[in-house]
Amino acid sequence: MENPLLVLADHAVSWRDRPLAPEVAHHARRALIDWFAALLPGCSRPPATLLAAALAAERGPGRSICYVDGKPGPLRHAALLNATASHTVEFDDIFRDAGYHPACPTIPPALAAIQQQGGGMETLLRAVAAGYEVSCRIGMAVQPSHYRNWHTTGTVGTFGAAAATALVLGCDARQMAHAIATAATFAGGLQQAFLSDGMSKPLHPGHAAEAGALAAIGAAAGVTGALDVLHGPKGFAAATSEDTGKWEAAFTDLGRRICITEMTFKNHGCCGHIFASLDAVDDLRREHGFGPDDVAAIHVGGYGPTKTVCDRPEARTEQECRFSTQYCMGALLVLGGVRLAAFAPENLANPAIRAIMPRVTVELDPELADAYPSRRAARVRLTLRDGRVLDRFQPTRKGDPDAPLSDADLSAKFEELVAPVLGAGPASALLETLWHGDAVPGALPI
Fold first, then answer.
1. pLDDT for position 196
2. Which pLDDT belongs to residue 390?
3. One Pfam family for this entry, by name (predicted)?
4. Torsion sign, CA atoms 382, 388, 393, 396
């Protein structure tokens, strides 16, 4: 096929003027609402708070809002800190077929660019849709092998940031191509960063947002990149996946399938690879009325990352517990859900949750592994102390495109996560702006 980078650049630029279907605009607003819901709880937590303080002296002038401290600053500064904050509490969106969280690297630089130079909500929706298109399709071209070592949100997120920012900055197709090309050589993010304890994981989309914005700013100023960098023999796909990219498969429905209309919005505040098993146990609990003390054993069969990333029977820290099937299953049974409270210090040490963890086992199910990443299923066998054995095959996750959160569900999630930060009144006002407003949000009363 022809050069995939040039195809993507032309497609991205088309989002400036193409008819914006009401359905697509609505889905883009849903993505914004979900991103703000993930962002605002993370604004008071490390690593964003630590980074904001460390970089305060070099903030410089600008009109882009850093929501971590509520102050204006340069585009790249706001993009870095807002993207980092929005990946901290693990409530951000997922594009299932690429194993990727597109909002946290894509929306912050696009919003910051509009705040910096002016523009309205429609421009933001178009830029975000373009960024999702570019990055999600690059993600599809390199998956699933890319995810063996790389954190997709840190890598392909750089392309989403570059494309969205370049569209806001008015780049033409040639400049867009160079923005994407430069973004490729900036991309990074290793899985080991979240297989062990540490604060690096939220920094991945932070870096992607800032690096992609830099690539776009450079391209708008005439900086060029290598236009064969996606598919070349030593390019992005070759370096980070099994081959030089499944580009034809990733582009086969380009222009017909709009990626932002197929987002997964999280219903649990933990790693998405645990969701299917949580949904299965939650359904069984409602159907059969058992409590945590009634459970003798829970066995989870899952796809690759359910085992390799989320089988953590000894998880202790907040970071580890967000990626532990054992901990999250205990939190679901004891607390009734895996929300922000599940990772409060008192619950990380909760003996009732800790008592569940040794009863939970995880193994790879080859059939489910073969269906990944387009399917995120689980097989659960739950044994009760009275001898009953309950089996459940969970073919998808609540929040996936085939089992979506409704607009009401999404609004409720937003209010739950944002009202404690802003207050009920300001949270409702922001939600109204995001659903129906023509202006992009500015400073908030954090």
1. 86
2. 98
3. MmgE_PrpD_N
4. negative
Q: Report pLDDT for 330.
A: 98
- Measured between alpha carbons, how far is residue 411 from residues 106, 301, 417, 419 in Å? 21, 32, 10, 11
pLDDT value, residue 113? 98
CATH of domain 4-262: 1.10.4100.10
End-to-end CA distance of the chain: 49
Helix/strand/coil percentages in the chain, nearest 5 = 60, 10, 35
Residue 224 exposure: Cα atoms within 13 Å on the Cβ side: 4
**pLDDT, position 446:** 85
Residues of the chain with CATH 1.10.4100.10: 4-262
Residue 318 φ then ψ, to 5°: -55, -45
Residues of CATH 3.30.1330.120 domain(s) within the chain?
Answer: 272-394
Spans of the chain below 70 pLDDT: none
136: nearest Cα among 97, 182, 178: 97
CA–CA separation, 136 vs 153, rounded Å?
10
Q: Which residue has the tokens 């796809």?
A: 303
Nearest-angstrom CA–CA distance, 94 and 372 = 14
**Residue 150, token pair as written in the block:** 């790389």
CATH topology of domain 272-394: 60s Ribosomal Protein L30; Chain: A; (3.30.1330)
Is 0.85 topped by the overall pTM?
yes
Give the CA-trace dihedral at 199, 52, 110, 237, to 10 degrees: -30
Tell me the Ramachandran region of residue 376: left when phi exceeds 0, alpha when psi lies from -120 to 50, beta otherwise: beta
Would you state the structure tokens that stand for residue 127, as one six-digit string?
Answer: 């830029």
Biggest distance spanned by C-alpha atoms of the chain: 71
